[in-house]
Amino acid sequence: MELDGFDFKLLDALQRDASSTNAELGAVVGLSASQISRRRERLERDGVIDRYQADLNAAKLGFAVTVFIHVTLAAHSAGNAELLRKLIVDTAEIQQAHAMTGETDYLLRVAIRGLGELSVFVNETLLAHPAVARVRSEIVLETIKDGRLLAL
Q1: DSSP 3-state assignment of 124?
Q2: What is the CATH class of 5-45?
Q3: Start-end ranges of CATH 3.30.70.920 in the chain?
Q4: What's the pTM?
Q5: Burial 20-46 (b: 16+ CB within 10 A, else e)
Q6: Which fold has domain 59-139?
Q7: pLDDT averaged over consecutive 10-residue blocks of the chain (152 residues)?
């Protein structure tokens, strides 16, 4: 799929504020609202735009602690990896999960209400899982930047 300058301007505007109307986007991009609508539909259909979502303020909703958890598998096998992937997908507290190279097999970003809840999560969800050998957690003291904007 080929993207032109208008597509990149549209994508940049959408990633900054996906609630913008086609008319508002058109003013930023330099196209009419109907042209924006057609381009937007094409970008969605072709999978360039995965989804739209609202960014919620975790702290205001009671999720006061962000934790990065390093997970090491008990055994490196396709079966264990699949078991852990299922746990990751099915666990709401896990916001992001990445398969890694190096010492850590998976790096998880977890939003949790407090340290007591973190203890329960680590001990009863992760360490109790048969695919997991070891976990190491790092509690975030301050978030300097939290975003997924691509440098278009």
Answers
A1: helix
A2: mainly alpha
A3: 59-139
A4: 0.87
A5: bebeebbebbebeeebbbebbeebeee
A6: Alpha-Beta Plaits (3.30.70)
A7: 95 96 97 98 97 92 97 94 96 97 96 97 97 97 91 92
